[in-house]
Design a protein that fits this description.
globular
Length: 304
């Protein structure tokens, strides 16, 4: 049903774009803005190549007519960068975000804060770039924090900053920031909001790193429930949550925990295979399955 709505939106926006193109011109900002919405709808229905072409065309038109420092241009660049990142093209997203930040630098606008937030998110997922991520996210939080304290972009930036701090080995500082962000997100979205999914996952990892598998199990169960509710039980988000919960259960030990961990690994493996996950991801799950199997085969209180 949702896909049908997006398909209908694609047709309506295509007609609107064509009409504005004829009456106002292809480079008119109003035409470009409607083209952006059309591109977003195309992406939602899986017409990725068309979405990319229209989105890039819209950004080029806005830059040409409004200039590089206009907030609408910054928003369009952010949307295009998000598109690239969503489709595994982080190498193209990063320079676009840096261009956006450079053109707005020092203005303290929401658009500058949002581009900094997006860059920080991107870098936090890249190996060895946690320090850069933390710097970008600190600037984003400073700018976005001047506005609505319940701004979802501010709260997500805060949570990601906590994650970056943990990656830098600052467990206590990172955990404090994560818990603060989670509390604020709960106040806005409730205990099962989709915005809590990754922060709960990150907090569970911190608890594991601290040698607190019992606490991690509780946190990661919540994260899995949120992923299932909002992303679907067969989504890769649910698979990642199931894998991390399995690690916590294995660390906690005990027959019931190990049996559940084995089931979760089996489930995650099936989801990832269906999603054509990388061989490295599947190998990591296979290694975890072996660790759980060895632990389950040990006699109570014994050593294998």
């Amino acid at each position: 049903e949702q896909l049908d709505r997006f398909a209908e939106a694609v047709e309506k926006l295509a007609r609107a774009t064509a009409t504005l193109e004829r009456t106002l011109g292809a480079d008119n900002p109003e035409t470009a803005e409607i083209r952006r919405y059309w591109a977003s709808a195309l992406d939602r229905v899986g017409r990725t190549d068309e979405a990319e072409a229209e989105m890039e065309r819209a950004v080029a038109a806005l830059e040409k007519t409004l200039g590089p420092k206009h907030p609408t241009v910054a928003r369009s660049q952010g949307d295009l960068a998000a598109f690239y990142a969503r489709h595994g093209r982080e190498g193209e997203a990063e320079p676009l975000l840096r261009r956006c930040i450079a053109s707005l630098h020092g203005g303290g606008s929401r658009e500058e804060g949002d581009c900094l937030r997006m860059l920080g998110n991107l870098l936090s997922d890249a190996p060895g770039r946690a320090a850069e991520a933390a710097t970008s996210l600190e600037e984003a939080v400073a700018i976005l924090g001047q506005g609505d304290p319940k701004d979802p972009f501010l709260l997500i930036a805060l949570a990601t900053l906590g994650h970056a701090r943990v990656q830098l080995g600052e467990l206590s500082a990172g955990e404090r920031v994560l818990r603060d962000a989670i509390a604020r997100l709960e106040a806005v979205y409730g205990p099962e909001g989709d915005q809590l999914r990754r922060p709960l996952f990150w907090l569970g990892e911190v608890e594991l790193a601290r040698g607190q598998p019992g606490e991690a199990v509780v946190t990661l169960r919540r994260g899995l429930a949120v992923a299932e509710k909002h992303r679907g039980a067969e989504s890769t988000a649910a698979a990642k949550a199931a894998e991390t919960l399995a690690r916590a259960l294995a660390a906690a030990g005990g027959g019931e925990n190990l049996a559940e961990a084995a089931r979760l690994v089996e489930r995650a493996t099936a989801i990832y295979r269906g999603a054509n996950a990388s061989p490295e991801r599947l190998a990591s799950l296979a290694d975890l399955a072996k660790v759980i199997e060895r632990a389950a085969s040990r006699p109570p209180g014994g050593v294998s």
